[in-house]
Write a structure and sequence with these properties.
binds adenosine-5'-triphosphate, binds magnesium ion, alpha/beta, six-stranded mixed beta sheet, Rossmann fold, 2 domains, four-stranded antiparallel beta sheet
């Protein structure tokens, strides 16, 4: 087990965006998360990555991290991407990876090595000096993923990485995520609305609804679960 959440709750005023959540993620797996809009998925990533302080307990790699901020958590081995690309438009891809990653005391040449490795892995070497403002969405998303990968995470959190991409681009991105998992052993937690992508990629999946866990299990178990079906049909009819 690489990540365990116990009784995690995040309230905004009286509203609980994440409510008494318990689940764990195994080392080396791709763990998919789905759920209706507003279910608390992004909030959950903000909690795990230290952007929000929540109640309850979170253990990552045998260490309690629930009290730590984003820089510390990144240095311990958790990196993330954002649902909407969060980049510095006027800078180049290379500069974005440099300033967007917490390298935690690595020397200059080691940092350069890591950035070059990330650029190569995500196929961005030729665009490294391009300003981010002029990039298409796919390349912005690849830049964000490269910035996360450059910190050599053990766990990578991807928030709707293929949303807005066309099917060919989405397939390319998905292939890279699988390769990251297989060849670099990075554990992945991925939020995705497209069920066919999520079920195809995930070892296990969780459905969140109203900040709560509806079900966790294999993709088949989850998509055939009456409560999951109800949750999705209920929402598409709303
Ligand atoms: N900073 C905040 N302040 C107040 N409410 C918030 C804040 N962040 C999130 N929320 C609320 O918490 C709920 C969960 O939001 P969240 O963004 O986590 O949902 P989500 O599952 O990621 O949805 P989507 O699929 O649309 O991305 C929503 O009702 C949202 O309005
Ligand atoms: Mg979200």
């Amino acid at each position: 087990m690489i990540l365990e959440l116990k009784n995690v709750t995040k309230t905004f005023g009286k509203f609980a965006a994440v409510s008494d959540l318990n689940f764990s993620v195994n080392e080396g797996e791709i763990f998919g998360i789905a759920g209706p809009n507003g279910a608390g998925k992004t909030t959950l990533f903000n909690i795990i990555s230290g952007f929000y302080r929540a109640t309850g307990n979170i253990v990552f790699d045998n260490r309690k991290i629930s009290h730590l901020g984003p820089d510390k958590i990144n240095i311990l081995g958790i990196a993330r991407t954002f649902q909407i690309p969060l980049l510095f438009d006027s800078m180049t891809i290379y500069q974005n990876i440099l300033v967007g990653s917490h390298f935690g005391g690595q020397g200059k040449s080691e940092v350069e090595n890591r950035i070059n490795e990330a650029l190569s892995f995500f196929g961005l070497q030729e665009l490294r000096a391009a300003a981010v403002a002029n990039l298409k969405l796919l390349d912005k998303k690849l830049t964000m993923a490269a910035a996360a990968f450059a910190t050599r995470p053990k766990l990578l959190l991807l928030d709707e990485p293929v949303a807005g991409l066309n099917p060919v681009e989405a397939e390319l991105f998905v292939g890279l995520v699988k390769k990251l998992n297989r060849e670099h052993g990075v554990t992945i937690i991925m939020i995705e609305h497209l069920m066919n992508i999520l079920t195809e990629m995930s070892d296990r999946m969780m459905i969140l609804n109203n900040g709560q866990k509806l079900i966790v299990g294999s993709p088949e178990t989850v998509i055939n679960d009456p409560e999951t079906i109800e949750c999705y049909l209920g929402n598409s009819h709303a």
